Recover the amino acids of this structure.
């Protein structure tokens, strides 16, 4: 009898572990309430879909694919991850409503290398490329699209970069006192004026000459400063990435 029991134990030990329920990663991973569950990530999760794997505090969360795969396995699900995905981006949204189209598959997206405060300018070293399951429709294709721009709100390290995260930093506001400078051929002139509108570096703004009350078009070059002439043309030719490194 003992021999039969021992033989049965050895057979069970040698047999491969029962495979979990096969699931596939959703093409658009969305979370509506800030608690990311297996149902938010996988099609066919069934009862295990209620299991929470992470939380989302901002507009998106970036999950480690290996950790998600392990959490799914513990819940009885089997995600093969044949594409070799390393990061999963979960965006705020709901499966019940229309969602923005995404680029599907094992794709590269820009993510924030560090957390940024609202109003802080994005520097070249602040964004890095990472693999993800999907890219939002407004994900920038080039880092230059966000470098030199200002964060509209606090941005978390590891989150996917979205063009709606940032806007052109305003260095001059309407009503600000502005010094307009012209330099060419060794000649340098300056006049004082008042900004009639707001603008970031490289933007053309209307400036009213304080003395003559005439309005001229100048290019914002910094807080309270603008340029006209060759310097304005040169500034406009620079990309925002170059502003950020100046």
């Amino acid at each position: 009898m003992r021999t039969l029991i021992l033989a049965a134990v050895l057979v069970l030990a040698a047999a491969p572990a029962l495979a979990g329920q096969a699931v596939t990663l959703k093409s658009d991973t969305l979370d509506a309430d800030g608690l990311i569950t297996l149902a938010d990530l996988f099609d066919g999760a069934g009862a295990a879909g209620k299991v929470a794997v992470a939380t989302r505090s901002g507009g998106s969360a970036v999950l480690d694919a290996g950790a998600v795969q392990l959490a799914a396995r513990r819940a009885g699900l089997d995600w093969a991850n044949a594409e070799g995905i390393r990061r999963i981006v979960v965006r705020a949204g709901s499966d019940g409503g229309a969602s923005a189209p995404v680029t599907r598959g094992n794709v590269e997206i820009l993510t924030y290398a560090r957390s940024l405060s609202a109003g802080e300018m994005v520097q070249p070293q602040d964004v890095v490329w990472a693999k993800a399951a999907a890219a939002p429709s407004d994900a920038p294709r080039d880092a230059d699209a966000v470098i030199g721009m200002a964060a509209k709100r606090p941005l978390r390290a590891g989150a996917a970069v979205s063009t709606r995260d940032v806007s052109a930093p305003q260095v001059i506001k309407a009503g600000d006192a502005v010094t307009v400078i012209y330099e060419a051929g060794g000649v340098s002139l300056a006049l004082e004026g008042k900004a009639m509108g707001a603008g970031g570096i490289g933007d053309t703004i209307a400036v009213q000459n304080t003395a003559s009350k005439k309005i001229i078009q100048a290019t914002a070059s910094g807080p309270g400063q603008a340029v006209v002439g060759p310097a304005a043309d040169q500034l406009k030719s620079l990309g925002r990435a170059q502003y950020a490194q100046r």
Q: What stands out?
A: Helices lie at 2-14, 38-41, 65-74, 230-237, 240-245. The first helix runs from residue 2 to 14. Residues 103 and 135 are 5 Å apart (CA to CA).
